[in-house]
Amino acid sequence: MDKKETMKAVICTKYGLPEVLKIQVVDKPIPKDNEILIKIVATAVNSGDVRVRGLKVEGFMKIIMRLVLGFSKPRKSILGTVYSGIVESKGNKVSTFKEGDKVFGMTGFDFGTYAEYIAVKENGNVAYMPENANFEEAVSLIFGGQTAIYFLEKSKISEKLEPKVLIIGATGSVGSAATQMAKYYGSDVTVVCSSEGKFLVESLGVSKIILYDKEDFSKQNRKFDFIFDAVGKTSKKQCEKLLAKGGIYKTVGGLEYASESQKQLVLIKELYEKGKLKAIIDKTFSFDKVVDAHKYVDTGRKKGNVILKINE
Ligand SMILES: NC(=O)c1ccc[n+]([C@@H]2O[C@H](COP(=O)([O-])OP(=O)(O)OC[C@H]3O[C@@H](n4cnc5c(N)ncnc54)[C@H](OP(=O)(O)O)[C@@H]3O)[C@@H](O)[C@H]2O)c1
Q: Which protein residues are within 6 Å of ligand 1, measured from CB?
C-alpha cells in the first residue's frame, strides 16, 4: 500500500485565545476528478477567522455558531478562507486549470486555507491570479474585495450617476476594498475612519474624510444615496437622517451575509491589473507565527489585510 502523503496545517484545537492554534501534520488532500490541488503560498488572517477561533459573537448567536461550526471546537479544524498559490496537480475531469497555474480564491465556510495544500473544485470560487500581483498581494484582495462587491452590487450604485456614498470604517479589509470599489463605480465617496487611518484613505484618493475620534459623523448635514457600514458599528436608525430620498443603508454587522462567486474574483483580477484596485497589506507573518498574527487581528485595528505566508 502507498504511504499517505502529509502536510503541515494550523489546527484550531478548541475555541479560545490565539494559543489554541497549533501547527500539526495531517494528510495531504488528494484532488477528486473535478478538483485541483493547490500548493498554497499565502493566506490571510481575517476578522472572520478570529471571530470563529474565539467564538466571538453575542448572546444566542453563540449557540447558533456552535451548532453550525461545531460544539467545543470547529468541526472543520483547519481555519482560513482565502488563498493564493500554484496548481500542483488536477483531477481527470479538470479542463480549465493546469499544473503550474497561479490561482487565488476563497473557500468560505469550507475553511481549510491555513495549510500547505488544499483541493478545490475547478468551477468553485477560484480564478487565475492578477498577472501583475505577487502571492501576498493577490490574497489580500479577496476577503474584503468579495464582501465589498457583494454589498455594493446589492445597493445598485453602479446604476446611478455619481452616487453619494458614505463608507463607515474605511480602513479595514472590507472598508478599504469598498472605498476603492465605490470610486470605481464613479461614486462621490466620503469615509469615516480614525485619525490613525487618515493616511491610508488619503492614499486611496479620498479627500472627504470624517475622523470619528474628532467628530460625530451622524451630525453631518450632507445626504447620501448609499451608506455602507463596513465595520458593523452603527445601526440604520443612527444613519437614517443622513440618507437621501430612496437611499440605502447596508451593514456587515447584521444578519446579511455576503456570498462569493468566481465572477467577483474575475472582476477583482481585472481591476487590479488596470490599477483600479490596490493591495492593502498591513503586516505579513510567517506560517509559524500564526498565533501572533491572530493576536494582531484580534485588536480590531488592523489596516487593510494581514497575510500569513505558508510556502516561500
Ligand atoms: N456580513 C458579512 O458577510 C461579512 C463579511 C465580511 C466581514 N464581515 C464583518 O465585517 C467586519 C469588518 O471586517 P474587516 O475584515 O474589514 O475587519 P478589520 O479589517 O478587522 O477592520 C478593522 C478596521 O476597522 C477600523 N475601525 C474600528 N472601529 C471603527 C469605528 N468605530 N469606526 C470606523 N472604523 C473603525 C479599524 O481602524 P481604527 O481602529 O483605527 O479605527 C480597522 O482599520 C467584521 O466584523 C466582520 O466580521 C461581515
A: 46-48, 51, 144, 147, 168-169, 171-175, 192-194, 196-197, 212, 230-233, 252, 256-258, 300-303
pLDDT tens digit sequence for 85-140: 999 999 999 999 999 999 999 999 999 999 999 999 999 999 999 999 999 999 99
Of 149, 194, 200, 231, best ligand 1 pocket probe by most atoms within 8 Å of the beta carbon: 231
Q: Which three cell numbers stand for residue 48?
A: 472572520
pTM beyond 0.85: the answer is yes
Query: What is the average per-residue pLDDT within 229-233?
Result: 97
CB 244 within 8 A of CB 164: yes
Separation CA 81–CA 83 (nearest Å): 7
The pLDDT of residue 312: 75
Q: Which atom of ligand 1 is nearest to the CA of 46?
A: 15
Instruction: Give 39: exposed, middle or buried? Use CB within 10 Å, 0-12, 13-18, 19+.
Output: middle
The domains found in the chain, sorted by start residue, are 6-141+279-309 (3.90.180.10), 144-251 (3.40.50.720)
Q: In angstroms, what is the span from residue 94 Cα to ligand 1's centroid?
A: 37
Instruction: Specify the length of the chain in residues.
Output: 312
Ligand 1 atom at shortest distance from the alpha carbon of 173: 16
Strand, coil or helix: 124 = coil
Q: What distance in angstroms lies between residue 178's CA and the mean position of ligand 1's atoms?
A: 12
